Amino acid sequence: MYAVLAGGVGAARFLRGLTAAVDPSDVVAIVNVGDDLTLHGLRICPDLDSITYWLSGVVHPTQQWGRADETHTVATELRRYGHDGWFTLGDRDLATHLHRTERLREGGVLSQVTDEIRRAFGVGVRLVPATDDHLETRIHTVDGRDLHFQEYWVRERAAPDVARITFDGAAAAKPAPGVVEAILAAETVLVAPSNPAVSIDPILAVPGVREALHRTPAPVVGVSPIIGGRVVRGMAHRLLPALGVEVSAAGVAAHYGDLLDGWVLDTTDADQSAVVEAGGTRCVTTPTLMDDIEVAAALARTCLSLAAEVRT
Ligand code: FO1
Predict the structure, then answer these.
(1) Burial status of residue 204 (CB atoms within 10 A of its CB: 0-12, 13-18, 19 or more)
(2) Which of 94, 121, 167, 266 could form a disulfide with 205 if both were Cys (CB 3.0 to 4.6 A apart)?
(3) Is the CB of 154 under 6 A from ligand 1?
(4) What are phi and psi of 192, to 5 degrees?
(5) How far is the CA of 156 from the centre of ligand 1 (A)?
(6) pLDDT tens digit string along 167-178?
(7) Mutual angle of helices 110-120 and 46-55, in 10-degree steps
């Protein structure tokens, strides 16, 4: 079994590759919930939904989040009442939020509801939220604002300079059922090429997760989300400096520190392998820009062979 620490789009692409290389039912994705928000009274889980939609082949092909063949009738009607719609909810996507919210209201926990939703989409990978408890990523800007991650990323388009990032509720949060068990029982633990600051760190912030990663006999192998000093997608380059992390493959490896046994960098960053290996982490370079499923599958296989090397 393979346990994967996962955020949104980058993780979804990586998981598509991994499930082309191994049996999807052998994969447990431990997914970030720090991006989650309540809008119009509905509970929305962007990273869980992005992965579900990607793995079931219904994701919007260019947006890379939300649904393909989407309509926005409800969003348009909501404007009539003055809702400015900065966070676009499509009609098909709304069904997921309506169902999730109803199940949570009747007493279901997120990990149960997530399992129902991924099965309803025929997704073989087991998706587990990092925690069933409240955990919310907050972006504290240099000009003194305390923004929900989605306000920062979507409404403000990641424009404000960031002073600090916090994970509200993390200290009291518990790993969701199956999270620690998956990490301890895994043959290999993989850290997807997700945003370290707002996708992986919120998972690591849940008490018990780091300890499990240190305790597991499984090698922990990560994939750099930075290629040639640049993010592939998203806003990690706007956030990593706030953490004092260099926007580079080596910088992110150093940020994860001794959690990593192996690190996969893009071929363009081969010159950074030496400094990462000096820190005790085995490196391999390979193409990591997952433009198609073949590249993603080859990347996944490279991770697994690095894990096998580390294990010996
Ligand atoms: N991203 C945007 O840039 N604009 C949006 O209006 C937007 C809406 C949205 C709705 C549902 C959902 O699951 C994701 C959505 N996203 C949108 C993407 C979202 O901000 C990101 O997927 C993650 O939160 C960051 O990885």
Answers:
(1) middle
(2) 167
(3) yes
(4) -65, 160
(5) 13
(6) 999 999 999 999
(7) 20
Architecture of domain 2-61+94-134+174-311: 3-Layer(aba) Sandwich (3.40)
Question: Amino acid identity, residue 92?
Answer: R
Give backbone dihedrals phi and psi of 52, rounded to 5 degrees, phi first: -60, -45
Tokens of 8: 């949104």
What atom of ligand 1 comes closest to residue 199's alpha carbon?
26
* Model pLDDT for residues 97-145, shown as the tens digit of each residue: 999 999 999 999 999 999 999 999 999 999 999 999 999 999 999 999 9
Q: Domain-by-domain residue ranges, the chain?
A: 2-61+94-134+174-311, 136-171
- How is residue 242 written in tokens? 């706030």
Q: What is the sign of the dihedral through the CA atoms of 92, 41, 235 and 117?
A: negative
Pocket test for ligand 1, best of 87, 151, 157, 231 (most atoms within 8 A of CB): 87
